[in-house]
Amino acid sequence: MDLLKTMRISASGLDAQGQRMRVISENLANKDSMGKTPEEDPYRRKVISFKNVLDREENITKVAVSNIGVDRSEFDLKFNPSHPAANADGYVKMPNVNSLIEVMDMKETQRSYQANLGAIEASKKMIMRTLDILRQ
C-alpha cells in the first residue's frame, strides 16, 4: 500500500530533522566555548547536510544525513587582554556560532518536522478511513 511507503518516507524525514536539531542544540550550547590558550581554537560551528537514499527493498527514496561537518568561516575576535586565550594584541578568538542563525535554523527544522508529522497523520487517517469503508 502506497500510504505505508509515504509514512516510511516521512519517518525518515523525522529522523533527519531530529539529528539536525541535535546539531543546532550542540552549536547553541557551545556558543561561548573558547580555547584555553592563544593557540587553541574555540568551538567551531557544526553543519549538517542531507542526501537522498534509495531503499531498494521498499522501492522508495528516503532522506538521510549525508555529513556532519564544520563551518570553516573565520572566528570573530573580541578584545579581552585578561583572558588566558588572548593573543599578544589582547584579542580572543570567539566561536563562529551566530545565535540568530541557529534559532532560524531551529525554526526551519521545527517546521520540517511538523510537516513530516502532518504527512504521517494524514496517511494514518486515510488508512483508517479505508479500513472503515471496507468494514461496511
Task: Characterise this structure.
The chain is an alpha+beta fold and 136 residues long. The chain has one domain (2-32, 42-74, 98-135). 48% of the residues lie in helices and 21% in strands. It has two helices and four strands; from the N terminus they run H-E-E-E-E-H. The protein has helices spanning 2-29, 99-135; strands at 46-55, 60-70, 76-79, 91-94. The strands form two sheets. The protein has a two-stranded antiparallel sheet. The chain has a two-stranded antiparallel ribbon with strand order 3-4. Helix 1 runs antiparallel to helix 2. The radius of gyration is 22 Å and the shape is elongated. The two termini are 20 Å apart. The mean pLDDT is 94.
Number of domains as seen in the coordinates:
1
The helical percent reads: 40-55%
Sheet with the most strands, sense and barrel status: 2 strands, antiparallel
- Overall SS class: alpha+beta
The amount of beta strand, in percent, is 15-25%
